[in-house]
Design a protein that fits this description.
Helix content is 0%, strand content 58%. It is mostly beta strands and 121 residues long. The protein starts with a strand and ends with a strand.
């Protein structure tokens, strides 16, 4: 079994910063892409940022220039540095990882439990 443990959410004023972290543990052979998604009530979960094992990053347009995703492959950990936060960044942030648990098995999708980010205006 694979576990993704997130931390770093909280309440911050608009213009402030937060740093989220997500560590994968358990039966991990390798991890392909890892990323952050967020969800607000009544809306679908949306991609915020992803990063591959080779360091290729992707961001949603609304966070470009404000958020930075980073990764430590040796620690199976990613971070999301969020600067210049806006009220519309509020939501539950979920960590996602495409994990290979055995060298001959296809990658499987795993999710963390989510961490709340609230930006007050």
């Amino acid at each position: 079994q694979v576990q993704l443990v997130e931390s770093g959410g909280g309440l911050v004023q608009a213009g402030g910063s937060l740093r989220l972290s997500c560590a994968a543990s358990g039966s991990v052979f390798s991890i392909n892409a890892m990323g952050w998604y967020r969800q607000v009530p009544g809306k679908q979960r949306e991609l915020v940022a992803t990063i591959t094992s080779s360091g290729n990053m992707q961001y949603r347009d609304s966070v470009k220039g404000r958020f930075t995703i980073s990764r430590d492959n040796a620690k199976n950990t990613i971070w999301l540095q969020m600067n210049s936060l806006k009220a519309e960044d509020t939501g539950v942030y979920y960590c996602n990882a495409l994990v290979v648990v055995h060298r001959f098995w296809a990658p499987q999708d795993y999710w963390g439990q989510g961490t709340q980010v609230t930006v007050s205006s």
